[in-house]
Amino acid sequence: MAEAQNSPTPDSARAGGPPPVGSTTAGSIAVAAESTVATRMSAPPSFDVADFPVPHGREEEWRFTPLERLRGLHDGTATADGSIRAEVSAPDGVTVESVGRDDARVGRAGTPVDRVAAQAFSSFEKATVVSVPKETVLTEPVRVTLHGEGGTTFGHTVFEIGAFAEAVIVIDHTGDAVRAANVDFLIGDGAKVTFVSVQDWDDTAVHCSQHNALVGRDAGFRSVVITFGGDVVRLHPRVEYAGTGGEAELFGLYFTDAGQHQEHRLLVTHSTPHCKSNVVYKGALQGEGAHAVWIGDVLIEAGAEGTDTYEMNRNLVLTDGARVDSVPNLEIETGEIVGAGHASATGRFDDEQLFYLMARGIPEAEARRLVVRGFFAELVQQIGLPDVEERLIAKIEAELEASV
């Protein structure tokens, strides 16, 4: 397995010439580009969809995305003609409200950075605001279940976590839908939040979402993104800090099957001194046309002295015909930092690991399952919810069974 860390790794040994920078196909090693281009969007953030030109696929932020499969989310032709069954299960003390677009909490955590997110903001009817009072420690998670029942829907959800509160939040996506949404987190000083987003859509679903987290002073935010289903899934997690001492952990796990496009584009902006961030995303791919995209951007602004950040993406290619684009980006505007680094690696099964297990009497199919489970183990452990962990392991097993 080849790894690129802090510098581009050339790949000139491919027949027919090198692939595009940051692109990996089955049988090739990883190519990771160090560039700040991905942090430069074709239009500045805006709540107004008219401020974003219709993308054509040549823009940096859209060059990997199959626009023709977005069902009109990107060009304004998609209309809210669908339905989605939404259920919120909240422990005692948590309030759930439906509010209008003019509520001060809506959009406060972050501004849409592409046309789809702006379209979602301008198209939802009512936003859902889930509030956890200050100093409240929840013993049960807040669970939001979204089950698509066909057609196109737009949404906006705000989680407001009071100072020194602690909460676990789970959003579970299932069914069939064309879905564009924004999810905001307003995290008070000293609060601790774990957010788990599960994309377990039907194979025909399309899902684009921007996650915005505004992390308060000495607060902690942990995001765990799990993506399995859908025809096209394009997620945009973003973190900003509202005070010193904030910490963010962004974990992701994806299993990309034949024909699926799964894209995760992250941005952590360090504009406040003495904050930390850690990003770890891992993916497995199998089948013809499976395409995973991971863009990891970290921006350390001039005033963010004492920043400590690291990001890593690893991909395991299980069959021929799969493609990975992995691009870590790091932009540093001050030398007064604790540390900053990134890494990207893509490869096939380790033949030595398989040989070791098979030499001890373990059948090849079971050996493959053990290797994949070991590959994902550290991320599964970050979830902290036994029912979600068991479901995740079962999904991995089912995906591997299908490939045998």
What does this structure look like?
The chain has 404 residues and is mainly beta. The chain folds into two domains: 22-348, no CATH class; 350-404, no CATH class. The protein is 13% helix and 42% strand. The chain contains four helices and 18 strands. It has helices at 115-123, 351-358, 364-380, 386-403; strands at residues 2-4, 23-25, 84-89, 95-99, 127-132, 142-161, 166-187, 192-199, 206-215, 220-227, 232-241, 247-256, 261-270, 276-285, 291-300, 308-317, 323-332, 339-347. The protein has an 18-stranded mixed beta sheet that branches. Belongs to the iron-sulfur cluster assembly SufBD family. Pfam families: SUFBD_core. This is Fe-S cluster assembly protein SufD.
Low-confidence stretches: 1-38
Radius of gyration: 20 Å
Q: How many strands in all?
A: 18
Give the integer mean of the pLDDT values. 87
How many structural units, i.e. domains? 2
How much strand content do the residues show? 35-45%
**Sheet with the most strands, sense and barrel status:** 18 strands, mixed
Instruction: Please report the distance between the alpha carbons of the first and last residues.
Output: 22 Å
What would you call the structural class?
A: mainly beta
The secondary-structure element order is: EEEEHEEEEEEEEEEEEEEHHH
Q: What overall form do the CA principal axes indicate?
A: globular
H/I helix tally: 4
> Approximately how much helix is present in the residues?
10-25%
